[in-house]
Amino acid sequence: MSSQTQENYLKCIYKISEKYAEGASTNAIAEGLETKPATVTDMLKKLAAQKLINYQKYQAVTLTPKGRKAALNIVRNHRLWEVFLVDKLKFSWNEVHDVAEQLEHIKSEELINRLDVFLGTPKFDPHGDPIPNKAGKIINNKATPLNESKVGLKLIVAGVSEHSTDFLAYLNEVNLTLGQKVVVKKVVAFDQSMQLIINKKDILFISHQVAKNILVVCQ
Amino acid sequence: MSSQTQENYLKCIYKISEKYAEGASTNAIAEGLETKPATVTDMLKKLAAQKLINYQKYQAVTLTPKGRKAALNIVRNHRLWEVFLVDKLKFSWNEVHDVAEQLEHIKSEELINRLDVFLGTPKFDPHGDPIPNKAGKIINNKATPLNESKVGLKLIVAGVSEHSTDFLAYLNEVNLTLGQKVVVKKVVAFDQSMQLIINKKDILFISHQVAKNILVVCQ
DNA sequence: ACTAAAATTTAGACAAGTCTAAAAATATAT
DNA sequence: ATATATTTTTAGACTTGTCTAAATTTTAGT
């Protein structure tokens, strides 16, 4: 039985491991959880003792199958609650993260399975991230960052790789929301900023920084 | 900012104070929270330091206005979540307590206000208990225990004063659910057990112990 | 390869919430 | 009214999760 704190560590290690195959370093985890490296080391030992992670002194850690399952369960909870908050309670996609961070730790399998059914077993959360199923199976989201797209391709916004309120609120403002049709009109070679056509008519300039964090699929 | 533990103490003191006007004793709180009296004393000092309770050594404690407001907020959360679990997720009224005990501690005013609207601002939870409003105002439930009712009166089940899963599951079994029409046909003088007529036709025997914990209003 | 920088771990400490055992205060019974 | 029982508090200790400061290990630069 993992505590809330331990669940947060597992989730954090999972997220880092998605990006870096070698696993999660002490520093990266400390940054992700806004805590100190020394604190992380203490916790890594406890998680290793429960066989939730593979830990060798001074090396990046990875999740064991047991740890991965626990992490995916938290991710499932988090994303289902986000769907609930947006679809049912009419929150905007940039307002739901903090509350979902709390709700994800509610312990009841029955609750989450019923919530899943109530929501119509959604496959993606409001940010386009895939929702793991009961068994911990998760769709591999093959969307690519907008900054890697070629000029002229017809694209659809399918997700984001940055979840901060500010970023999402900005996307709302400029109408770059999930499902939006986008064509890259021009890329400025100097700073890789982009000129987009949205909804076949509106023109929008975005920075490289923004383009990098928008995920798209071909239309 | 109260911790989950402190919130549970406040709720417990509130519930005891509903029954005993003089307030909550250390022992009563310890029993309610399934902890030890020594632990309770420690916490009472902390709550008093935050001006959430009135505490004098060796005396029963009462909530200050600030403490009462905090307690009613938790009660509001708990009861709204119970309505959600029963109305939306189709849980039975005897399955919701434990999960609601967790959900009640989620910290977000916006969340609970939106949930309230989503549920249609219900006035009572699935056990017939009144739901405090945003401001902490709570309807005084004037339902009376079934065992105090006279023979022949036409009654409606309006609540329960015992919330254990076993008791509620039993009521389900014998069809004594919220809103059920009941007439007291006979009271056995020896043990105060009761013979009821349910739904104008079915006959049911219940013990005094059961009757005491069912709340009714006149039809 | 050797040194400086960066990352990680250890050691010792603290806060919150809990416990047991013992002491002190209050309540009860005859 | 006084002894006994009950309730409450105190004292000291433990666990979880956190911190700072110092030590150690790994990595990187030249």
Q: Quaternary arrangement of the chains shown? A: homodimer
Q: Tell me the radius of gyration of chain A.
A: 19 Å
CATH superfamily of the largest domain in chain A: Ferrous iron transport protein A (FeoA)
* Cα separation of the termini of chain A: 44 Å
How many domains of chain A? The number is: 3
**Percent of residues of chain A in beta strands?**
15-25%
Tally of separate helices of chain A = 8
According to CATH, the fold-level topology of the largest domain in chain A is SH3 type barrels
Tell me the name of the CATH class of the largest domain in chain A: Mainly Beta
- What is the β-strand count of chain A? 8
- What share of residues of chain A is helical? 40-55%
Largest sheet composition of chain A: 6 strands, antiparallel
Helix-strand string of chain A: HHHEEHHHEEHEEEHE
The coarse overall form of chain A would be: globular
Look at the helices and sheets of chain A and give the structural class.
Answer: alpha+beta
The spatial strand order of the largest sheet of chain A comes to 3-8-4-5-6-7
Please outline what is shown here:
The structure is a homodimer of 219-residue chains. Chain A is built from 8 helices and 8 strands; from the N terminus they run αααββαααββαβββαβ.
